Automatic annotation (TrEMBL):
Keywords: Membrane, Metal-binding, Transmembrane, Transmembrane helix, Zinc. Residues 287-393 form the Alcohol dehydrogenase-like C-terminal domain. It comes from the Eukaryota. This is Alcohol dehydrogenase.
Amino acid sequence: MGMGMSCLVGMVLSHPSCTPTAMTQETHRTVCWYPPSFDVRVEDVAMPRIEHPDDAVVKVTLGGLCGSDLHIYRGHGGIDKVHTCGHEFIGTVHKLGDNYGSNQADIRPSLYKNLKVGDRVVAAFTVSCGECHVCHVGYTCRCPHGLLFGSPFLNGGQAQYVRVPKAGATLFNLENPESILKSLTPDKIKHINDASLLILSDILPTGLFGAVQTLNHPKVKAIWEGKGWPGVFFSDADADPSANAMNEEDKFLTIALVGLGPVGICALVSLLDLIWNLETRSKFRYRIVAVDLLESRRNKAQAVYDRIQHPDKGKNGDVVVLGGDLGELKEKVMEWTGGVGVTAVLEAVGHADALELAFDVVRTFGAITSIGVHGAVPIPFTGRQAYNKNISFDFGRCPVRSMLPRAFEILVKRQDVFGEIGTESSLIDRVVPLNQAPEMYRKFEKGDVGKVLFDPWK
Ligand SMILES: [Zn+2]
Ligand SMILES: [Zn+2]
């Protein structure tokens, strides 16, 4: 802790991405993960270089510490290779490969033509090419060229510099926000600070992704639209109208949000924003029960909910924040839904216990969306149990490229939550020098701090 850059330059380092650095070699400061677990170190290693003509090197202004970094930190990733941590970063373009410039073909993503050294950029937490079938469909997080920053395969952004493969489709140019979403004029974003913009890298698009998958699921849509699934699939013009008749009481959308860490907070804000929007299309009541075992996280969720003013959080419903042990939580949710269970669960933890809670509190014909990063532990229910409840599941990583434009809109609108640092209702807890990484990893792992960002130049 607290070692300055000068005393580290010239040390013999074991970081795999570089050979031991000599005094004369250009280095940069990074946070490195060491196996087997609970060991991150601040080290100076060789500067990243352009390795492919599609690459960019970004000078990082802020790098985020994220809940999914903890899976590797705890040694749950099945990884034994030392690497630079962090998959969330914002910065400026430092170097560009040869495939950038005005002479590039129009068919490629526009950044290959327009991106310039010095441009302010934010990166999606996974690389995507933007040019393959998988990317075209919108599943950018599963692009065959995809790589996760801060993994053994690609050094991350808790560093002064980071190499970005396929940067023309992986980066977003903040100099020209209208290229991301037409309504985002430079004027609209000029007052938004880097700490706030950094959450576009992962957690806000991920929270929004969970909210979209939850609310747009046909079984969930059935409730807020008042058109019963699966009959609604067919034209009901000549069907008996009483066959799928929902009354106002039935149009009660209930969602359990499991996990109120930074991603859970982003999911909560996104759910409220989308529900506010859906209320213009259909009349329904809603209730979100937000659960976490940690009191500090529950307090944050309550403060965020209180901060958002009506009607931005919908007119016809509320959020109830619940704690207690898992058994108590199950009982409370079941009691509160009259023994039916909730319409949907959004699980933002990435632990088998959270999934078990989700399974137990979701109604029959319910939908579970899991955006938590799950490990090697088997799913805690059987095929028979799933059959007997007619459950739907959505798992997996957020395609940031597909979600970012709408997430950006929410970021601009919700600067009351996302624009401040270190207040009761702010998502971001603190911005600290990179040297504090080992301490912050320890505290974050214990739930003693909220969302932490590293400034690698302090
Ligand atoms: Zn993240
Ligand atoms: Zn692709």
